[in-house]
Specification:
Number of strands: 22
Distance between the termini: 52 Å
Number of domains: 2
CATH superfamily of the largest domain: P-loop containing nucleotide triphosphate hydrolases
CATH class of the largest domain: Alpha Beta
Radius of gyration: 23 Å
InterPro entries: AAA+_ATPase (IPR003593), ABC_carbohydrate_import_ATPase (IPR050107), ABC_transporter-like_ATP-bd (IPR003439), ABC_transporter-like_CS (IPR017871), P-loop_NTPase (IPR027417)
Family: Belongs to the ABC transporter superfamily.
CATH topology of the largest domain: Rossmann fold
Number of helices: 18
Structural class: alpha/beta
Main location: membrane
GO molecular function: ATP binding; ATP hydrolysis activity
Helix content: 25-40%
Largest sheet: 6 strands, mixed
Membrane topology: Peripheral membrane protein
Shape: globular
């Protein structure tokens, strides 16, 4: 009979309360050497709270933990790191004015003769970047890197810890298929080296590729455990939401022949893309796909005035509306829901009402006099309209990722736009919130609003789009009709 090895990490009856509100309800969890355990659940299920307790960011209200057979109760993240546990956060925590190498080794600088050994630091950081397929010099600053590349730097940072247990919280949320596969190869190597991994993701298809076991949480409790990773997605989702699942993607209304929005021969002043042209019909959902670095985000930022262009024009209802600034684009009825809702979409320390009001000052203060009552009333109507789970007085940073995204949507859709650009609209969002956002897209389409969707999730862009523009290395590789678009045809163009 094979010997059953003891787990390297054990949690027993871990509870967490904030006053009368209980967040975790007696969590039991074991992680063994060389296994990947997927920790799944909707936003607010308690996954991040469990992770933060393991990594010393949060202290549990009760319960116990053991690490490699000894009692374990880290008082802070440094104690956890020194014990051999590392966490790759969902939210980026890089210092933009430091170099990649400095970010990778911040707080634990390689030293020689009492001084920082910069050459050794840059060499070791460069090795990790190359392992992840990131073609960037370790001595360049983080400032200006795309969200996907920043995520890879975060991963490189964790890989240098030589940790015996890693918690990966949404590590592929900003990555495309090629970058995700490189990460999975690193995970396979770590697993072979005996490293235990807790893997948190809302991309459920990848769980079948990477996980050895699956633990499902709901409302702060562990509700189910699967002893294998190859479990049908529908089964996983139904255990997450506690009910049978209907269809993931809604039915979209047919699109007419009227062209509302046109991009003609557009070229980036930042050399991110060249000569892009397409038309979007009234009520059409137009997808943009491609690998990370293909120029997708840069394209939609240029369309909405956030990035400069060197050539080309943009037309709305036949009128030239080529923007010189985001404000000009907004005034023309073209709005962008950006890929990073925390840094670019919200003022986190301000209330939901204030965030919605900031984008709608004409409606809430037509006579230039700002009234808190008017803002609260306007916001309350839109909180209800878009199904935001929260009160207007709550700060945005107190909400789950799904509800934060709904607030960003609410503030821009309340402006009654003609074109809505959604960059990674469901990044890091659970299946329930995704469904709500897809329903909002259908509603916009039915009203004749043009919707442009950028997504690294190929299944998503295929599921919601009437047509798909595929980008490859900053150029337009092709446009596919819904009938001809599938994962193979999109990837063939994306890698052409």
């Amino acid at each position: 009979m094979a010997e059953v090895k003891s787990p390297i990490l054990s949690l027993r009856q871990i509870k967490k309360s904030y006053g009368p509100l209980q967040i975790l309800h007696g969590i039991d969890l074991d992680i063994h050497e060389g296994e990947v355990v997927a920790l799944l659940g909707e936003n607010g299920a308690g996954k991040s709270t469990v992770s933060n307790i393991i990594c010393g960011t949060i202290r549990p209200s009760s319960g116990s933990m053991t690490w490699r057979g000894a009692e374990y109760a880290p008082a802070n993240p440094r104690e956890a790191i020194d014990s051999g546990l590392g966490l790759i956060h969902q939210e980026l925590r890089l210092l933009p004015h430091l170099t990649i190498a400095e970010n990778v080794f911040v707080g634990r600088w390689p030293k020689s003769r009492g001084q920082i050994d910069r050459k050794a630091m840059e060499r070791k950081a460069q090795e990790q970047l190359e392992r992840l397929g990131l073609d960037l010099p370790a001595n360049r600053k983080v400032e200006g890197l795309s969200t996907a590349n920043q995520q890879l730097v975060e991963i490189a940072k964790a890989l240098t810890l030589n940790a015996r247990l890693l918690i990966l919280d949404e590590p592929t949320a900003a990555l495309g298929d090629a970058e995700t596969e490189l990460l999975f190869k690193q995970i396979d190597r770590l697993r072979a080296d005996g490293v235990g991994i807790i893997y948190i993701s809302h991309r459920l298809e990848e769980i079948r590729r990477i996980a050895d076991r699956i633990v499902v949480m709901r409302d702060g409790a562990k509700v189910q455990e699967f002893d294998k990773g190859d479990v049908p997605v529908r089964t996983i989702v139904e255990s997450m939401v506690g009910r049978e699942l209907g269809r993931m993607f809604p039915h979209f209304p047919p699109v007419g022949d009227d062209v509302t929005f046109e991009v003609k021969d557009l070229t980036s002043a930042l050399d991110a893309f060249h000569d892009v042209s397409f038309k979007v019909h009234k009520g059409e959902v137009f997808g943009i796909a491609g690998l990370v670095g293909a120029g997708r985000t840069e394209l939609v930022r240029a369309i909405t005035g956030a990035d400069p262009i060197s050539a080309g024009s943009i037309y709305l209802d036949g009128k030239d509306v080529t923007p010189r600034s985001p404000g000009q684009s907004i005034r023309n009825g073209i709005v962008l829901v950006p890929e990073d809702r925390k840094l670019q979409g919200l003022v986190l320390e301000h209330s939901i009402s204030e965030n919605i009001g900031y984008a709608n000052m004409k409606a809430v203060a037509p006579k230039k006099w700002v009234s808190k009552k008017a803002i609260d009333s306007f916001a309350a109507a839109n909180i209800h309209r878009f199904g935001v789970k929260g009160q207007g007085h709550q700060n945005a940073d107190e909400m789950s990722g799904g509800n934060q995204q709904k607030v960003v949507l609410a503030k821009w859709l309340a402006t009654d736009p003609k074109v809505v650009v959604l960059d990674e609209p469901t990044r890091g969002i659970d299946v329930g919130a995704r469904s709500s956002i897809y329903d909002i897209i259908v509603e916009l389409s039915a009203k004749g609003i043009c919707v442009i969707v950028v997504s690294s999730d190929l299944e998503e862009v295929l599921g919601v789009s009437n047509r798909i523009l595929v980008m490859a290395e900053g150029r337009q590789a092709g446009i596919l009709d819904r009938a001809n678009a599938n994962d193979v045809s999109v990837m063939e163009l994306a890698t052409s």
